[in-house]
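Quick question, first post here. What does this chain look like in 3D?
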Amino acid sequence: MIGMKGIRQQLTLVFVILTIVPLLLVGLLLSLQIYQIQKDAAIVLQKEVAKRVINEMATVSAELTDHLQHLALISGLVGMDLENQRRILDQIAALGFRQQKNVFNDVSLLGPEGHELLKISRLRVADPKELHNYKDDTLFTVPVNEKRPFYGGLQISPVSRDIEMIVSVPLVEKRTGKIMAVLLVTARLDLFLETIMAEGGSHKISIFFADESGMVVSHEDPSVRLSVARITVPVDGQIIKGFDGQRSLRVTELFKFGLQPLYVICDYHVHDALGGVISSVAAVGFFIMVFLAVSLTVAYKLVAPIVGRIENLSDVALAIYEGNYGQKAAAEGDDEVSLLAKAMNAMTKRLVDDIDRRRRAEEALTAEITERIRMEKEHVGIKIKALAQDKLATLGEVATGVAHEINQPLSYVKIIQESALRDLTEGRFDQDEFLEECRGSLAQIARISVIIDHLRTFGREESLAMAEVNLADVWGNTLIIFNQRIRQKNVSIREDFGEDTTILGNSLKLEQLFINLLQNSLYALKPKGGGEIAIAVRKERDMVEVEFADTGMGISAGVLEKMYEPFFTTKAVGEGTGLGLAIVYGIIMDHQGTIDCCSQEGLSTVFTIRFPRYREYSGTGEMGLS
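> Answer (accepted):
Ran it through. Tokens below.
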């Protein structure tokens, strides 16, 4: 169920992402658009305010010029004597301008040649020695030559720290148009600038002025101007940190006031200029949150049925995993989940069929293996019986020869005993001769004991154990039983045993192998009488090769093809069982060997047998085949 909850959450999340992300993108784009619109509108407003301020500055300068000319003309300043001129200049300085008192710090009258005739100062008494000659100064030359007012640059009074500007106005005689004098005044602009800067108050825009270097020459906060603050100019539509520490949108406009280029700077606090953006973004965010809640509810309702069907598939799959193949998934409809459920049901049915087929196949295989084990046991039993029968047949065939072998030493012992009894009876007992005869008797008795012990060993039930076996010793044990028959048939034995003729094998089975081959060779030599049997054992790389040959009547090609088959024989009825070579073949297979036969009919037969050579594993004590 934890996994299902995860799927439900994931599907719900995907649904919400697919619905909310586009909305977020649209909201973000709308917010950016609103921000840009608000910013552009704020910049436009600031530029309009700046232009009004510039126009107002131009209006002030023009009105000031007209005001001065008007006062000078109506007072008849040019035609008066020096004392009356001083009185008129005092009146001009006292009258002010635009309902502002103390507008002019200094008022001077320049003669036609540029000499300063009079000077009235509001801040200090003018010394006649301080009167200047403005003959070559633009304050005089421009009004005289161009017959227009001239505005000097802005400056800060070293005494009052007021913002000042020198204005020179030509006084022209109306009748002749001749320049009679030049009126030179030092006007306090800060009085008018404060009024002009208030233009932005209704829009919450802070207005101040700076020169080309960025030094603030006028600000509503006197501490800013007095601190000789500097700003970066020009700036257009950038958000900066203002003098009040607030983030503001700044716009600058350059204009020329007389000879002085000035910047009018408009600072608009961000929360005032772009307040609508914050409200718009808040509205978009609220709408998104509402839509998100609705989307989550709708998504959960839509996802729940799908997850329920997937849970059913999960439960069925878990049941199948636990071995309950009777469960079926709900497969109503034709959508992807239904198709998956149908495929799972079909897969389960096929799995059940496969399991049933596998169970039947396993039962059949178990029965077959059981039958094969039974047949193998029967086969082993048959082999053991066949070997036992072959041994009995062999013992039967060699019984006469063995009896003769035993009879000879017994006859010798009997003769010795009779001779000793007769000598004792007749009183002719010779102790040394008797001891010598006893030793001979014991030797004959030992010979009988060896024959009987070997017959007992050969005739007992076989052990299937493998051990280190020397083939030369096995061949010697075989001859113990067959020596008499070999002598009777006048057959010569030729032996050639090389070094290291040891293999891993069962000595009794290998002796049975040699006996069966020897019997077949003696039978093949019977028609001829005499003949030779040769055995050669030698090492060939990792094999031990046994070559067994006779000079008998050979084997035909037709017999060669069948001679290893059980119960196949060419002997007359009663002379053979047909198991001899079949047993030979089985013994060789038991020893992981091979057998080949080469025969020339009427001349000879050669059997070549190869066994894996015995070796002892160094360091482990285990024995095996090389």
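The chain is about 55% helix and 20% strand.
The domain at 204-269 is CATH 3.30.450 (Beta-Lactamase).
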